[in-house]
Amino acid sequence: MTDGLSHAQVPAQDVLAFLSDPSVGLAAEAQAAFALGTVLGRDPEPHLASLADLLRRPSAPLPGRALATLVLGMALERDPEERMGPHPLAEQLGPPWAVLGHLVSAERITDPVDRALVLLGGLVERDGLDPRVVLAHLGDDDWQMSVGERALVLLLSAALRPPLAVDAGTFLGRSAAALALSSQRVTSIDWGVERGAHVTGLDRVDFRCGRAADVLDEVLAAHPECNLVVLDADHGAEGIAAEVEAVLRHPNVGLRAVVVHDVDMPSCRAGLASVPWDDRPQVRGRSLDFISGTGGTGGVALLWVASEDPTLPT
Ligand SMILES: C[S@@+](CC[C@H](N)C(=O)[O-])C[C@H]1O[C@@H](n2cnc3c(N)ncnc32)[C@H](O)[C@@H]1O
Does 312 reside within a domain? Predict the structure, then answer.
């Protein structure tokens, strides 16, 4: 897998060549939108309106729409603050939280998936991440997550550049691989010893075998620097509640983002409902339906957790 931490700017013709490769399997419209944005992302002004139109087209299938928003994000990269308007949390949060503040702001772009993609596009361009690598991650169907949910995971790791990200529920390792794009280290946890072994070439990922809640307790106690956690292991009510409580027991010093997947599953939802949120002051923000699922499965809750800084927003 290409090293996502490399910062070389990719020449437009390389991106075009990648998109023309039939094995990439993107719809023509999506290819056109992405290619347009990649080429024009460096001089976007005259084209922002038409890109925004593409984004609004109701008939656009999700991949096309997703790519159009990613493109728009790339076009916005030079100053997302200025172009998307100042965010009320920007002063309190500081970078990268100022950028992430936009994630919870519905002022300009109402759909959370679109917001995640726009910001992801911005960070791809700002940080010189290889857009082909990011697209390959977004488009890989080995994930157990939807495109929008994948974008959120990629966005959070690109924004936070975690010293350590923790991924509960390895399965085929797709979320671990995505987190490894922008994280210095990733710990990925699963019951099954053989699961993590499906993933090769991920030298920044440590695979841990065991009950997710127990391993989370151990890893987060030892690593307060972890600022991103993805919970996608146990979807039973008791299991997910135990995982959330393990994360809250060891909050880090700054803000930590916690993604909980499959909140549309009734058992997962019941588990989250059983957490006594009002007695957990370390939870500075929570959106239990941040991205909607497909009825019975999928869907993402997003929590912001912090321990020590009283100036952070509640
Ligand atoms: C939905 S899959 C994870 C998918 C992965 N995050 C992705 O997006 O590619 C859930 C995984 O969690 C593991 N799992 C379920 N309950 C667990 C538990 N209590 N502790 C550890 N692993 C668990 C399962 O073995 C399975 O591989």
Answer: no
